[in-house]
Structures are given as structure tokens and as C-alpha cells.
Amino acid sequence: MSRSVLATAALLALTALAHAQTPATAAAAAPAAPAAAAAARPPVDPTAPKPFADVIKGAKEQPGLFPIWRKDDKVWLEIPKEAFNKPFLFTVNVANSVGERGLYASQMLGDEMAEWRRVGNQIQLIALNMKFRTDDAVNRRALEQSFSPSLITSGPVASAEHPDRKSVLVDASGLLLGDIPGYSTRLEAVYRLPYAPDRANSHIESTRAEAGLTTLTSRVHFATARIPAPPLVPPPVAVPTPPQATPDPRSMFFSFVYNFRALPEQPAAIRHIDPRLGHFMETYTDLGDDLKANPRVHLLSRWRLEKKDPAAALSEPVQPIVFWMDKNIPVKYRESVKAGILEWNKAFEKIGFKDAVQAKQQPDDADWDNMDATHASIRWFTGADVGFAQGPHTRDPRTGEILDADIRMSDVFGRGSRRLASDDLMGQHAQHAQHAQHAQHAQHAHQGHNHAPLASWMGERSRARIEQQCNYAADQASEFGFALDLLALRDGQDMTGPEAEALAQAVIKDTIMHEVGHTLGLKHNFRASATITQAQLRDKAFTEANGISNSVMDYNAYNLPLKGEPKASLTNTTLGAYDYWAIEYAYKQVPAEQEAAELARIAARSIEPQLAYADDMDQGVGGVYDGFDPRSNQGDLGDDPLAYAKKRLKLSQELWERVQARKPQAGEDPLRARRSVLSSFRQLGTTAHNVSKYVGGLQAERVVPGVTPGPAFKPVDNAQQREALRFIASGLLASDAFKFRPEFLVTQTVDYNEWERGLPLSIPDAVAAVQARVLDRLMSAATARRLIEQGAYLPEAQRKGAVSLSEVYGTLQGAIFSELKTGAEVDRMRRSLQREYVKRLQAQLNRSTNAAATYADAFSLARWHASQLAGELRMGAAKPGLSVETRAHFAELQDMLNSMLKATLTRS
Predict the structure, then answer these.
(1) Do residues 628 and 693 lie in contact, with contact meaning Cβ atoms separated by under 8 Å?
(2) What is the residue range of the signal peptide feature (predicted)?
(3) What are the pLDDT digits (tens) for 524-561?
């Protein structure tokens, strides 16, 4: 008989015996039953998760989208069974940072459509691939096989299923104390050091949960084992210094705010963008229709704004757009911030909404952080090396609905503006900060084209929501400093008095209007300032009622009058015509059956002059997108940018003269005059770039085929191109335009309290920086190409008198080397200009590195002018009476040109 049969027989016998026993006997035998049951129970799996109740014993619950359980330093997320494979919005913000080189607090990093997935006993947080979509189920399977999602983070299941809710726990520390935002790459980019997260010294700092939202803030320590010793020999490319704003450069903390937000159960109605207006967008590729030539879909970004009473001409919204003013905003600025927010109600009232935008003040004793995903906010931050404001937002990727926005604004008014104008910006720290911002700008400008060097798992989504780097506050602060300097010297105003404070308040309101505009879905408009006439800018009543530009989304220069001109508003006071138009297109409520026709009617107004629009790419972000329409600029003002450039030079020259004439006072900042001078040159550099756009420029209009009349491109008028060339030659490239007395220069001290105290003030260096902007523009491959090809855009009768590339090169060369004809000495400032010109000419003759060399005409013209210049230098050097310095300079330039002219004779 087998063992199994024997065991079965024995079990049956025991069962019969139990039934035959009396109750007393059964009671006596009862203890044996559990032992028998225990013997039959399968052995416990030591790897199985602990029971839910055991894990959370003694912990406190915070109910929410994903409930949070906390006990001492332990934090768990509870994930209901029905929440797996259900999309939600996952966002990351930075609440605390290090305050330098682009690493600032109050920053929105990005968002993803995400979902939880369980693989065995592993919980995965997955970023869904929203770049490619289709409504067809069969195609959807193909897309899922073709395009991968991404893993954000993962961790083991921390508990068995809850017996009732069927939910499980996951350790929040294991999920959220790593480098989810890819910050180690950002740190390496600015410091060139290998920082990594240190989990042992990181922790969950705070938690918050409510219906539809779960928020956890991780305090993450980043560290590097050692700081390398400086190289013994200076490297050919400058190496960034280690962190300067932390006590120990090997260690720093960041607070990352992780938001899990439920998506709206009912998706918002979508609205498609129109290229004639500038709105942020949700963009994806629709692969569900093979017949569409362009599968790209662009959904307009906007808040869900619906009237409580759809039939009323003016109605409150069901849910207003509420901005919480951060408790860190200085009390004296809060009213101006509030005014900047509420100014947008004027545009919403035009389309039937009352109090659509609201401002609320976060209490000073509030214990909650407005960087969660449900509080749009205005946050105040500081930085050691730069100041700016930025208005990003997050949105529902399904529809483009804006769900959250956190405007960050730095302390760039008053003290900040003086700091930005300081000599420190000429130093190493500021260069690192600028490089960091330029890297961010490049990321945003090239979003969707994989050009971003700092790509992380959420990099693409983050770029799609910010679209462009916004430095409006920094620009305004720099303009603010220039205006204070000039007005104080001209009118005797106190730079720290009531007039300066009133101007600061006006600039804050202007800046907040600009950034709130971004969070409402509006992009930059760099043509708006060119739609206000010079006469209107001088009319105080007009500027007080209408501002100085037709949009607060432009980067406007201050409306500073020349001496003797009437005073009007210095900065924007209210929304412009374009702002009303853009809000109407995005937010006007229209019955579904009428929407297409009504939106077409609204967009058709683009031909009205005051509604002209141009974005970042139009004004120029670098590379092939260098900006070729002189009407689309940052830092100009009025309908004649060339006239403004001339005015800006006169304003700068007036400031220089007044600074030199002013007698310093005991106890004042010893760097006051130095900062004023350098600030003016910084502004003049922007002007030099803008006026250079006229040469080889094209006027661009956003034409919709079959709808919008007129050409898409038109060469800039020949007379304007030549006038710009004359101004450049006689003004920006002439030494006489930059006059400073030795008696002034020798009094400009440095800050002896600082280790990096700067060097004596160098006007030639400052002038060279301005002139380099002109040379870079006029001698670029893009300008050469446009000058060569502009004849193709002109009727046959107009081509003969068109500005040619040869004319531009000849005018430049003649102006820069005018001493060769007169036999005059060449001073240091002119030697620097001539040397920089020859360097660029030399680069144009290098076919292997110069893109313009691909154009035979551009190369041959550059070579011809180089040969002409080499001959003129030989003759000029032979003229009697020249100093050794000038002769040596001519000899150096000849050698530079001859070496390249000989090299180009070699043919492969």
C-alpha cells in the first residue's frame, strides 16, 4: 500500500473518531485541530510582501488621488488596483536650488502623461508616448509596437493587497529620491563636474494629498567626491569654476516637488491654432490618416473657461483662473503684482467674462507650497548672478488645456537692476550664467528637433510647454538701470527716491502682465512695438491710455525722450490691441457649429497694422534662424527701428557726457559711473544687432494661401538698406562716436573688497563688443545668401538698383580702413576693429569651415575684397610718418590675408 493511501486512510479514521466522540471528549481533543490545520497549510513565502495592515501600523493617512501613509521618516504611496494602467499627469517642479548659473528656485521642469504599471512585484511609473497618436484601434497597436514609452522610476511592492480596497503600497523614498529630472546632467553642463544624487542623505521633505492630487517634495542631496585641481597649463577653452554660491562646492541640496494629478474626467474642447497669431500649442503627429500630407496636429493651449450663464453678455466663469501671490513677494510690490495679473480682465471682459482672472495672496503663515499642481502662482526668487522672470505652464496633452502655471520672478528691481548693470557681468561668473541661459534658450527654440544637449526623460515635454526662454525681466531691469541713470543725471532725480520707486512699480506691473500672458497661452510678439508711431510715443495721453506697444508680449525698450522732447509713459501701462485679439481667438465662447467660421473671421484681422505678429524665430534665435525682418526685434521701439537706433546712440552719448561731467559725491557707490557706462554699451549692442538686420533684410508676413492677400516675403527697401549701412559706417564703426576723456577714465576705480575686483575700465573693449555684433551680422553666411538671392524676389525692373553683396563688403571695408586713404594714424580702438574684420574675412576664405563658401559668388567676392585690401595695406604701410604700432599692425593684417589667399589657391 502506498504512503498516500495510508495517509488518506488514517485521516478518514481520525475523522470518524472525532464524530463519534462526546462533546466533552471533543472539547478535550480540540487543541489538536489547529495543529493538524497548521500542518496542512503551505509554507510561508519569505519573499512575499507583508500584509498591508502590518506595513502601515502606526502610520497616519493623507487621503488623496494616491493616499499617502507616513510614519516617522517612512513614507508610502497607496496605489488602488483600479489606478494601474490609468493615465494621470505627473509633473516636477524645483522649490529650492543653489541660486546661480541657471539653477534657480521656483522652476517648473516639465510634465508627462503617466501611468502606474505592475510587473510581478515591481511597480513602474511610466511616461506614455504622446508624440504619435491615432484614433484607429488597429493603428494604435502598430504605434505601441513602433514607439516606446519611458520609465520614470520604479520600486518593489511594499505590501500585500489590502483585503478590501485591493490596493498596494510602494515606498515613496525608493521611488522619488533618485535623479528623476536628470539634474546631474544640468549640473555637469554648468560646472563640468560629475554630481550624482546621494540617497543616504536625501529624504521626503513634505507631503500633501487631496481629491485628485498627491504631492510629495523630495529633498535630494547631490554630491561629487572631489573637485579636480586646476590644470597646470591654461586650457584652450575656459573651464567653468566650481559652484560659488554654496558653502562647499562638493555638496548641494535641491527640493523637487513631484505632483500626481488626475486628468479631467471630461476632456476640454480643443481649438486649433492659427499661424497668424501666437499661442502655445500641444503638438503631436497623427498617423491615423495616410492621405494627410502633413500629419502634424497643433492644439491651442488655454485654460478651460466657461460662462456660468452662457446666454448673458457678461458672465462670471464657472471656474476662474486664480493666481496665488507667493508669500515671499515683498509687501511693497504686492499691489503692482496684483495689478499686473488683473489687467488681463480687460481682455476677457471684451469677450463676455467678468472677473475671469483673479489674484489671491498666500498668507504669510501658510504652511503649504504653491508649487503643487493645483495652484497657479507668482513666485519670488533670488539669484546670485542673474535675474529674470518666466511664465511656464503645464497642460493636458490630450487637449492642450492649461492646468497649472507657476510664474517665477526674481528680485531684479532696485538692487537687482544695479547688480545686472555691474561690472561683474563682464566676468567669469556672469559668462557661466549667460551660457546656462543660452543653453536653455537653445533647448526651447529647437523643441521637437532633438537639438537639446540636456535632454532628459521630460526634456521634450518641458520644452513644449515653455516654448522659449523668457528673459523679459532681465531686459527690463537693464533698461530700468539705464533709464534711472539718464533721468537722474538729466533731471537731478534721486536714484533711490520716489521717482525711482514709482518707475520700479510700473516695471513690475509691466513684467507681470507679460508673464501672465505666457501662462494664459500667449507667445512673444516681437513686432508689436513697431506698430506704434513716433508721434504717438511722444503723446503722454496716448501712452497712458494705450501703452508704448501694441502688446505686452514684446520686449520693449523704454520710451526715453531725447533732451528737449516731451515726456510720455516710459513703459507699458496696459494691454495692447494684439493682446485683446489673441485672447479673443483663444477664449471666445462660440457654438460648436459656428466655431470654424468665427475663428476664421477673427484670424482674418491679421492684416490690420496694429495686430502684426512675429515670434522668437522671426526675431532671431541664432543659426539659420538669425532673424531677417528689421521690424521684428527685441529692445527697440516705434514704427521706424532705424530711427530708434539713431536715437539710442544719441541717448547713450548723452549719458556718457553727463556721467563724465558729474562730480562724485562722498559716500556714494564707487562703481556708480562705471556701471552706467557698461550698462549703456550693453543696450547699444542690442541696437547694433537690430539695425544690421536692414542689410539684406526681408519683410515677412504670415500669409495663409488663398486667404491672406499680399506677398509672404519682400526685400527691405533699397534706400533703407543703404541708410542703415551709412549709419553703421559713420556711427557704430566710427571712433568719434565713442568719446571719453582721460580725466574721467583714470578716476574709475574697482571694488577692492572683492577678490575678483575687475580691471581698469576699457572703453575700446566695450566698443569692440558693440562693433562685433555688426560684423558678425553683416559678414555672416545668412546675410550673404540673402543679398545674393534677393534679386529673385524683385521684379526685373527693380533688380538693377538692388543692394549687392559687393556693395556691402565694399562699404564696410572702406569705412573700417578709411585711414589707408588719408594716411592717418590708427588708434587702438580702430586697430581692434580692423583686426576683427580681417579675422572674419579670413574665415570667409576658408571653404572647409565657412558655409558662405558654398555660394560661389560669396566666396569670390570675399577673395576679391581680401586681395584689394592686401594691396592697400602694402601701399598704406609705405606712407611716411606712421608710428611703429600702425606699421606693425598693417604688417600683421597683410600676413593674415596673404596666408589665406595662398591657401585658397590649392584645389582638390
Answers:
(1) yes
(2) 1-20
(3) 999 999 999 999 999 999 999 999 999 999 999 999 99
